[in-house]
Amino acid sequence: MIVVENLVKTIRRQKVLKGIDITVQQGSITGIVGRNGAGKTTLLRTIAGIINPTKGNVTFDGKSVYAFPEVKQNIVFVPDTTDALKQYSIKEIVSLYGLIYSNFDSEYFYSLLRRFSMKETGKIRYFSKGQKALFSLILAFSTNAKFLLLDEPTDGLDVIIKKEILRFIAGEVAERDVSVVISSHRLDELEALADHIIVLKDGIVDSHLDMESLKQKYRKLQVAYENHLPDGLKKHLDILHNSGRVYIILVPSDDEETIDLLQKSNPLLYEELPLSLEDIFVAKLGGDSYAS
Amino acid sequence: MLPKALWKKEWKHVSLIAWGILIIFLLEYPFKASMKIEEWKEEREHYVLDWEWNNFLIHQMEYSFTASVFTVFAVVLIIVLAGILIGLERSSKRHDFSLALPFSKRSMFLTKWVLGFATILFSYTVSFWLGYLVLLRSEYGYVLTELDVTTIFFAPLAAYFVIFSLAMLIGTIAGDMRSQVTLSFIFLFFAQGFSIILLHFLATHGLIYFDYVLPPFLQDIFWPTYLTSMNIAIADLIYPIIGGVIFFIVGMLLFEKAPAEHSGEFLVFRSLHPIFAFGILISSALAGGLLMTTMISFGFTGGINVLSYWIGAIVAGGFSWIIIKRLLQISK
């Protein structure tokens, strides 16, 4: 279990993380979402022990990652590029990882390369961008570490390789005793993958959500009126989209009073639409920069 | 025991320059010794008297172990080696990769330092003794008994030790390889250089006489002196050894404290910015004043001298201020 306690990080006199408290359980996929500059990468780099916190601590099974760096045998950080390894051949990388991570499984590593029809020799600098991303994940999963920290693993990749990577992550977590923490601004990807979502906003945890219960918390409705949505209702709901007299709105499922008022306001159209994670974030955090 | 994984990781990046250092030392010692022997064979006919010839040979033997152009290359390569070990990593994605590994920062620094110094020690020792053997097995080998070989061997080694440790220390505060290498060269000469420009300032303004001499301790800590064993006693080597040990310990402590979020900037410790800004400004102004008085008003005294000093100081200070602003802008 990774426990992040009251993590504060100040960079250039600006508080990037303002007291983060989170716990990542074994065998889960946790998505960290937030706008650009919300502190996602800083949080992951601090958990990985790359940067030291100004205040607070990160522990793995009760041991601080800063005081006992050897616990990082079980916390592998996967950055958004493979530049650190570009000078190495695959053989050299396997040899190096075998020395770094005591549980590194080279047979499993090569079997994954074969599964994805990737070259088993040569330097990774000649791989395509998608292959490099996949290679990083294969390498990380082959360490048999208990926690993987993935920083924007699908950023800039085409749809096909992106789906392949997401399927691979989901498959690995289901089959092996591994937990994954993924930072992303792509809600659609995390929606299909994550068990928990941590929303970072301006350096603090805005919400920590369980995906199972999240979608039951809200209802997405499409309503249309002869003139416009009654003003008295507007303060009780979030308008996701408005086109003329048609409104797509978000209402808390337990707010029966608002739902009752909506139904009694004589809408020309009243229908429930399938709810996505993106709808909740757009409504609750504002803007549409979470889903690009 | 330092982790094998770190050795392997570091060696991957320094192997090329390690070979470069070995080649330079091979040129410096065995190659140079072979060339000297050929030279002496031709020189022999110019000497009639045996005692003259012997004196010549003793001096030549000393010169064959003295600093040469290859020594300058060796110093440059050693500073670049330290730059590759610390600075180059900091300005690349390798830095995140390294710091995310399950090893302490102390073992990372120790591996870098030990690998770097072992490269120097091995290359130097092998080359030196190969050179010695070449001379010993030649017809002039008997002259080697006239030399203090212990000092001749250890003096340059102590100099390389202190220069490498200094460059590694600078690496812990510098944000990338360019700033590390530049600052390492500056700090190699800083204490003496700054003293000279400061004393010249005082002399120009009539506060001391122009025939000033540098305090002896500044000569003791002028590390390039030890690159040659000429006029150096074995006991004098205590200064570079103590200096190297201090730089090593301070470097290790600072490496552990260095904030990774400022890697790639000019300096990683932002608290040093005002000190460096002030230091560069003052040093440049003093150097500008010295240059102006020695080039323009050399031989003049009094008012003209002071006026030209201040013109030089203001111009150099102004330029340096522009450079300082640009340098520190990298860090914003």
TrEMBL record, chain A:
CDD domains: ABC_DR_subfamily_A. The keyword Nucleotide-binding applies. SMART domains: AAA. Keywords: ATP-binding, Nucleotide-binding. The keyword Hydrolase does not apply. One of its GO terms (molecular function) is ATP hydrolysis activity. SUPFAM superfamilies: P-loop containing nucleoside triphosphate hydrolases. Residues 2-227 form the ABC transporter domain. InterPro entries: AAA+_ATPase (IPR003593), ABC_transporter-like_ATP-bd (IPR003439), ABC_transporter-like_CS (IPR017871), P-loop_NTPase (IPR027417). Pfam families: ABC_tran (PF00005). This is ABC-2 type transport system ATP-binding protein.
TrEMBL record, chain B:
The chain crosses the membrane at residues 12-31, 63-88, 109-132, 152-173, 185-210, 230-255, 275-300, 306-324. InterPro entries: ABC-5_transporter (IPR053046), ABC_transptr_acetoin_YtrC/YtrD (IPR023264). Keywords: Membrane, Transmembrane, Transmembrane helix. One of its GO terms (molecular function) is ABC-type transporter activity. The keyword Transcription regulation does not apply. It holds the Pfam family ABC2_membrane_2. GO terms for cellular component: plasma membrane. The keyword Lipid biosynthesis does not apply. PANTHER family: ABC TRANSPORTER PERMEASE YTRC-RELATED (PTHR39177:SF1). This is ABC-2 type transport system permease protein. It comes from Salirhabdus euzebyi.
